[in-house]
Amino acid sequence: VAKGRQVSDKEWQQHQQQQQEQRQTQEMQLQHQSEQQKHQEVVQSASDPAVNQNAKDLTMEDFVAYIEVIRKLLGSEFVFETEIVRITAEKDIRCINERIRADRPGELAGGLSS
Known about the structure:
The protein is an all-alpha fold. The protein is 67% helix and 0% strand. The protein has helices at residues 2-46, 49-53, 60-74, 90-100. It is elongated, with a radius of gyration of 29 Å. GO terms for molecular function: kinase activity.
Protein backbone atom coordinates (compact mmCIF):
# COMPACT_ATOMS: atom_id res chain seq x y z
CA VAL A 1 0.00 0.00 0.00
CA ALA A 2 2.85 2.38 0.85
CA LYS A 3 4.48 1.69 -2.52
CA GLY A 4 1.22 2.47 -4.32
CA ARG A 5 0.97 5.73 -2.37
CA GLN A 6 4.46 6.81 -3.49
CA VAL A 7 3.61 6.20 -7.13
CA SER A 8 0.46 8.19 -6.64
CA ASP A 9 2.45 11.06 -5.10
CA LYS A 10 4.90 10.95 -8.00
CA GLU A 11 2.06 11.04 -10.50
CA TRP A 12 0.51 13.93 -8.60
CA GLN A 13 3.80 15.84 -8.69
CA GLN A 14 4.10 15.23 -12.43
CA HIS A 15 0.53 16.40 -12.91
CA GLN A 16 1.22 19.56 -10.89
CA GLN A 17 4.40 20.21 -12.86
CA GLN A 18 2.56 19.80 -16.17
CA GLN A 19 -0.14 22.21 -15.05
CA GLN A 20 2.49 24.73 -13.96
CA GLU A 21 4.19 24.47 -17.36
CA GLN A 22 0.84 24.93 -19.12
CA ARG A 23 0.11 28.04 -17.03
CA GLN A 24 3.52 29.48 -17.84
CA THR A 25 3.02 28.78 -21.54
CA GLN A 26 -0.41 30.44 -21.46
CA GLU A 27 1.00 33.48 -19.64
CA MET A 28 3.75 33.81 -22.23
CA GLN A 29 1.22 33.53 -25.05
CA LEU A 30 -0.97 36.21 -23.47
CA GLN A 31 2.01 38.49 -23.00
CA HIS A 32 3.06 37.97 -26.63
CA GLN A 33 -0.49 38.68 -27.84
CA SER A 34 -0.57 41.85 -25.75
CA GLU A 35 2.73 43.02 -27.23
CA GLN A 36 1.50 42.27 -30.75
CA GLN A 37 -1.69 44.21 -30.08
CA LYS A 38 0.27 47.23 -28.80
CA HIS A 39 2.51 47.10 -31.87
CA GLN A 40 -0.54 46.95 -34.14
CA GLU A 41 -2.08 49.95 -32.36
CA VAL A 42 1.10 51.96 -32.91
CA VAL A 43 1.17 51.03 -36.59
CA GLN A 44 -2.49 51.95 -36.98
CA SER A 45 -2.09 55.29 -35.20
CA ALA A 46 0.95 56.16 -37.34
CA SER A 47 -1.05 55.58 -40.51
CA ASP A 48 -4.14 57.37 -39.21
CA PRO A 49 -4.87 60.42 -41.43
CA ALA A 50 -5.97 62.44 -38.40
CA VAL A 51 -2.55 61.93 -36.82
CA ASN A 52 -0.68 62.79 -40.01
CA GLN A 53 -2.90 65.80 -40.64
CA ASN A 54 -1.52 67.43 -37.48
CA ALA A 55 2.10 66.60 -38.31
CA LYS A 56 4.35 69.53 -39.09
CA ASP A 57 7.74 70.02 -40.69
CA LEU A 58 10.76 69.78 -38.43
CA THR A 59 12.13 73.26 -37.74
CA MET A 60 15.83 73.97 -37.22
CA GLU A 61 15.10 74.61 -33.55
CA ASP A 62 13.41 71.20 -33.26
CA PHE A 63 16.31 69.59 -35.10
CA VAL A 64 18.91 71.12 -32.79
CA ALA A 65 16.88 70.06 -29.75
CA TYR A 66 16.74 66.55 -31.19
CA ILE A 67 20.52 66.52 -31.64
CA GLU A 68 20.98 67.62 -28.03
CA VAL A 69 18.74 64.82 -26.76
CA ILE A 70 20.63 62.23 -28.83
CA ARG A 71 23.97 63.56 -27.62
CA LYS A 72 22.85 63.36 -23.99
CA LEU A 73 21.67 59.80 -24.48
CA LEU A 74 24.79 58.63 -26.30
CA GLY A 75 27.43 60.76 -24.60
CA SER A 76 29.57 63.68 -25.70
CA GLU A 77 31.61 61.54 -28.12
CA PHE A 78 28.56 61.38 -30.40
CA VAL A 79 29.15 63.66 -33.39
CA PHE A 80 27.10 64.31 -36.51
CA GLU A 81 29.48 63.93 -39.41
CA THR A 82 28.84 65.92 -42.57
CA GLU A 83 28.78 62.69 -44.56
CA ILE A 84 25.89 61.45 -42.44
CA VAL A 85 23.85 64.64 -42.08
CA ARG A 86 24.23 67.09 -44.93
CA ILE A 87 23.14 70.57 -43.91
CA THR A 88 23.32 72.97 -46.83
CA ALA A 89 22.21 76.30 -45.39
CA GLU A 90 25.22 78.19 -43.98
CA LYS A 91 23.11 79.86 -41.24
CA ASP A 92 21.88 76.42 -40.10
CA ILE A 93 25.45 75.10 -39.96
CA ARG A 94 26.52 78.08 -37.83
CA CYS A 95 23.51 77.64 -35.55
CA ILE A 96 24.26 73.95 -34.96
CA ASN A 97 27.99 74.57 -34.49
CA GLU A 98 27.36 77.18 -31.83
CA ARG A 99 24.94 74.92 -29.95
CA ILE A 100 27.23 71.88 -29.88
CA ARG A 101 30.74 73.43 -29.89
CA ALA A 102 31.36 73.11 -26.13
CA ASP A 103 30.69 69.37 -26.07
CA ARG A 104 32.56 68.28 -29.18
CA PRO A 105 35.82 66.32 -28.88
CA GLY A 106 38.98 68.46 -29.18
CA GLU A 107 39.96 67.84 -32.80
CA LEU A 108 36.35 68.36 -33.93
CA ALA A 109 35.69 71.49 -31.86
CA GLY A 110 35.63 73.55 -35.05
CA GLY A 111 32.23 72.07 -35.83
CA LEU A 112 30.53 71.15 -39.07
CA SER A 113 31.77 72.53 -42.35
CA SER A 114 29.80 73.20 -45.49
